[in-house]
Amino acid sequence: MQKFHIGGITPFTSIDFPEKLSCVFYFQGCVFRCPYCHNAEFQEKKEAKYSFSEVADFLKERVGLLDAVVFSGGEPLLFVNELSELASFAKKKGFLVGLHTTGYSPEKLRKLIDEKLVDWVGIDLKSHKDFYPEASGVKKNFFPETIESIKLLKEQNVDFEVRTTVYKDIADKNSIENILSVYEKLGVNPVFQVYSENGKRDTEILAFLNNFLKQSPSSFKIR
Questions:
Q1: What is the pLDDT of residues 109-160, one digit of tens each?
Q2: I need a surface site. Which of 21, 29, 94, 159 has the fewest CB within 10 A?
Q3: What is the pLDDT of residue 196?
Q4: Residue 214's domain is classified under what CATH number?
Q5: Residue 49: phi, psi to the nearest 5?
Q6: Torsion angle defined by CA atoms of residues 173, 176, 177 and 179, in that order, rounded to the nearest 10 degrees
Protein backbone atom coordinates (compact mmCIF):
# COMPACT_ATOMS: atom_id res chain seq x y z
CA MET A 1 0.00 0.00 0.00
CA GLN A 2 1.34 3.42 -0.98
CA LYS A 3 2.29 5.69 1.89
CA PHE A 4 2.69 9.46 1.79
CA HIS A 5 5.45 11.47 3.45
CA ILE A 6 3.06 13.36 5.71
CA GLY A 7 4.54 13.89 9.16
CA GLY A 8 1.66 15.68 10.85
CA ILE A 9 -1.73 17.33 10.45
CA THR A 10 -3.35 20.48 11.82
CA PRO A 11 -7.09 19.69 11.68
CA PHE A 12 -8.29 23.30 11.82
CA THR A 13 -6.69 26.71 11.28
CA SER A 14 -7.77 30.18 10.20
CA ILE A 15 -4.28 31.58 9.48
CA ASP A 16 -2.68 29.29 6.88
CA PHE A 17 -4.86 30.25 3.90
CA PRO A 18 -5.98 33.88 3.68
CA GLU A 19 -9.54 34.41 4.93
CA LYS A 20 -10.32 30.69 4.73
CA LEU A 21 -10.77 27.90 7.24
CA SER A 22 -8.37 25.10 6.41
CA CYS A 23 -6.46 22.06 7.57
CA VAL A 24 -2.73 21.64 7.05
CA PHE A 25 -0.75 18.56 5.99
CA TYR A 26 2.97 18.74 6.78
CA PHE A 27 5.36 16.90 4.48
CA GLN A 28 8.45 15.64 6.27
CA GLY A 29 11.65 16.45 4.45
CA CYS A 30 13.17 19.78 3.38
CA VAL A 31 15.99 21.04 1.17
CA PHE A 32 16.80 23.79 3.67
CA ARG A 33 18.05 23.84 7.25
CA CYS A 34 17.02 27.33 8.30
CA PRO A 35 18.44 28.15 11.74
CA TYR A 36 15.15 29.76 12.78
CA CYS A 37 12.80 27.08 11.40
CA HIS A 38 9.55 26.81 13.37
CA ASN A 39 8.80 23.38 11.87
CA ALA A 40 12.20 21.83 12.50
CA GLU A 41 10.63 18.46 13.28
CA PHE A 42 9.75 18.16 9.59
CA GLN A 43 13.22 18.94 8.20
CA GLU A 44 14.44 15.35 8.04
CA LYS A 45 12.95 13.00 5.47
CA LYS A 46 11.51 10.02 7.33
CA GLU A 47 9.59 6.89 6.50
CA ALA A 48 6.28 7.50 4.74
CA LYS A 49 3.52 7.43 7.32
CA TYR A 50 -0.02 8.03 6.01
CA SER A 51 -1.92 5.95 3.45
CA PHE A 52 -4.07 7.56 0.78
CA SER A 53 -7.21 6.17 2.39
CA GLU A 54 -6.32 7.78 5.73
CA VAL A 55 -5.86 11.17 4.08
CA ALA A 56 -9.00 10.70 1.97
CA ASP A 57 -11.14 9.74 4.96
CA PHE A 58 -9.84 12.74 6.90
CA LEU A 59 -10.83 15.10 4.08
CA LYS A 60 -14.21 13.47 3.40
CA GLU A 61 -15.22 14.11 7.00
CA ARG A 62 -14.49 17.83 6.56
CA VAL A 63 -16.33 18.50 3.31
CA GLY A 64 -18.63 21.45 3.98
CA LEU A 65 -16.77 22.31 7.19
CA LEU A 66 -13.48 23.59 5.79
CA ASP A 67 -12.78 25.79 2.80
CA ALA A 68 -9.24 24.75 1.98
CA VAL A 69 -6.48 22.19 2.33
CA VAL A 70 -2.95 23.51 2.81
CA PHE A 71 0.23 21.54 2.15
CA SER A 72 3.23 22.67 4.16
CA GLY A 73 6.32 21.13 5.63
CA GLY A 74 9.14 20.61 5.37
CA GLU A 75 9.05 21.24 1.65
CA PRO A 76 6.03 19.78 -0.18
CA LEU A 77 7.62 20.19 -3.61
CA LEU A 78 10.20 17.54 -2.67
CA PHE A 79 7.31 15.09 -3.05
CA VAL A 80 5.62 16.67 -6.04
CA ASN A 81 3.96 13.46 -7.27
CA GLU A 82 2.47 12.73 -3.85
CA LEU A 83 1.47 16.37 -3.56
CA SER A 84 -0.17 16.31 -6.98
CA GLU A 85 -2.21 13.22 -6.10
CA LEU A 86 -3.40 14.61 -2.77
CA ALA A 87 -4.12 18.07 -4.16
CA SER A 88 -6.11 16.54 -7.01
CA PHE A 89 -8.26 14.60 -4.56
CA ALA A 90 -8.79 17.71 -2.44
CA LYS A 91 -9.89 19.71 -5.48
CA LYS A 92 -12.33 16.98 -6.51
CA LYS A 93 -13.89 17.20 -3.06
CA GLY A 94 -14.43 20.92 -3.52
CA PHE A 95 -11.57 22.28 -1.42
CA LEU A 96 -9.30 25.14 -2.36
CA VAL A 97 -5.64 24.13 -2.24
CA GLY A 98 -2.87 26.15 -0.62
CA LEU A 99 0.86 25.55 -0.68
CA HIS A 100 3.64 26.72 1.62
CA THR A 101 6.99 26.45 -0.13
CA THR A 102 10.57 27.69 -0.19
CA GLY A 103 10.26 28.13 -3.94
CA TYR A 104 13.40 26.06 -4.45
CA SER A 105 12.01 24.40 -7.60
CA PRO A 106 10.11 26.59 -10.08
CA GLU A 107 9.85 23.57 -12.39
CA LYS A 108 7.87 21.55 -9.85
CA LEU A 109 5.78 24.58 -8.96
CA ARG A 110 4.94 25.03 -12.63
CA LYS A 111 3.75 21.40 -12.78
CA LEU A 112 1.15 22.10 -10.09
CA ILE A 113 0.09 25.34 -11.75
CA ASP A 114 -0.23 23.67 -15.16
CA GLU A 115 -2.38 20.96 -13.58
CA LYS A 116 -4.53 23.68 -11.94
CA LEU A 117 -3.95 22.15 -8.53
CA VAL A 118 -3.03 25.20 -6.50
CA ASP A 119 -5.18 28.25 -5.62
CA TRP A 120 -2.85 30.14 -3.30
CA VAL A 121 0.87 29.96 -2.50
CA GLY A 122 2.80 31.25 0.50
CA ILE A 123 6.43 31.49 -0.57
CA ASP A 124 9.43 32.19 1.64
CA LEU A 125 12.04 34.74 0.64
CA LYS A 126 14.77 33.86 3.11
CA SER A 127 16.99 36.93 2.68
CA HIS A 128 18.75 39.04 0.05
CA LYS A 129 20.96 37.23 -2.45
CA ASP A 130 24.33 37.51 -0.69
CA PHE A 131 23.06 36.10 2.60
CA TYR A 132 20.80 33.37 1.21
CA PRO A 133 23.00 30.35 2.07
CA GLU A 134 23.32 31.48 5.70
CA ALA A 135 19.60 32.17 6.02
CA SER A 136 18.60 28.86 4.41
CA GLY A 137 21.25 26.78 6.18
CA VAL A 138 22.62 25.12 3.02
CA LYS A 139 25.65 25.78 0.83
CA LYS A 140 23.81 26.19 -2.46
CA ASN A 141 22.36 29.64 -3.05
CA PHE A 142 18.69 29.11 -3.96
CA PHE A 143 17.97 32.83 -4.33
CA PRO A 144 17.67 32.65 -8.17
CA GLU A 145 15.23 29.72 -8.00
CA THR A 146 13.10 31.47 -5.40
CA ILE A 147 12.94 34.64 -7.49
CA GLU A 148 12.00 32.59 -10.56
CA SER A 149 9.20 30.91 -8.58
CA ILE A 150 7.82 34.27 -7.48
CA LYS A 151 7.92 35.60 -11.04
CA LEU A 152 6.15 32.45 -12.22
CA LEU A 153 3.32 33.01 -9.75
CA LYS A 154 2.94 36.58 -10.97
CA GLU A 155 2.97 35.57 -14.63
CA GLN A 156 0.40 32.81 -14.10
CA ASN A 157 -1.90 35.05 -11.99
CA VAL A 158 -1.85 32.69 -9.03
CA ASP A 159 -2.76 34.28 -5.71
CA PHE A 160 0.31 34.32 -3.50
CA GLU A 161 2.13 35.95 -0.63
CA VAL A 162 5.87 36.40 -0.20
CA ARG A 163 7.14 36.56 3.37
CA THR A 164 10.49 36.80 5.12
CA THR A 165 11.10 35.55 8.65
CA VAL A 166 13.18 38.14 10.48
CA TYR A 167 15.49 36.47 12.96
CA LYS A 168 18.48 37.83 14.85
CA ASP A 169 21.02 37.48 12.02
CA ILE A 170 19.04 39.73 9.64
CA ALA A 171 17.44 42.04 12.23
CA ASP A 172 19.54 45.03 11.23
CA LYS A 173 18.97 48.11 9.08
CA ASN A 174 21.27 47.09 6.22
CA SER A 175 19.80 43.59 5.84
CA ILE A 176 16.20 44.78 5.94
CA GLU A 177 16.89 47.52 3.40
CA ASN A 178 18.53 44.98 1.07
CA ILE A 179 15.58 42.60 1.43
CA LEU A 180 13.10 45.41 0.83
CA SER A 181 14.93 46.26 -2.39
CA VAL A 182 14.32 42.69 -3.59
CA TYR A 183 10.59 43.04 -2.90
CA GLU A 184 10.56 46.40 -4.69
CA LYS A 185 12.24 44.98 -7.80
CA LEU A 186 9.71 42.13 -7.83
CA GLY A 187 6.79 44.51 -7.39
CA VAL A 188 5.56 42.49 -4.41
CA ASN A 189 4.22 43.72 -1.08
CA PRO A 190 6.67 42.79 1.72
CA VAL A 191 5.56 40.70 4.68
CA PHE A 192 7.95 40.28 7.61
CA GLN A 193 7.31 37.47 10.05
CA VAL A 194 8.88 37.94 13.48
CA TYR A 195 10.94 34.99 14.66
CA SER A 196 8.95 33.04 17.24
CA GLU A 197 9.96 30.53 19.86
CA ASN A 198 7.37 28.36 21.61
CA GLY A 199 4.67 30.39 19.91
CA LYS A 200 5.92 33.74 21.24
CA ARG A 201 7.33 36.42 18.96
CA ASP A 202 10.78 37.77 19.79
CA THR A 203 10.03 41.12 21.44
CA GLU A 204 13.37 42.71 20.50
CA ILE A 205 12.94 41.86 16.82
CA LEU A 206 9.33 43.05 16.89
CA ALA A 207 10.40 46.37 18.45
CA PHE A 208 13.19 46.73 15.86
CA LEU A 209 10.77 46.22 12.95
CA ASN A 210 8.17 48.59 14.37
CA ASN A 211 10.83 51.26 14.85
CA PHE A 212 12.26 50.64 11.38
CA LEU A 213 8.79 50.94 9.86
CA LYS A 214 8.24 54.34 11.50
CA GLN A 215 11.48 55.69 10.05
CA SER A 216 11.42 54.00 6.64
CA PRO A 217 9.87 55.35 3.41
CA SER A 218 9.01 51.74 2.56
CA SER A 219 5.88 50.11 3.92
CA PHE A 220 5.56 46.49 4.91
CA LYS A 221 3.34 44.21 6.93
CA ILE A 222 4.58 42.81 10.22
CA ARG A 223 3.26 39.46 11.34
A1: 999 999 999 999 999 999 999 999 999 999 999 999 999 999 999 999 999 9
A2: 94
A3: 92
A4: 3.20.20.70
A5: -115, -45
A6: 160
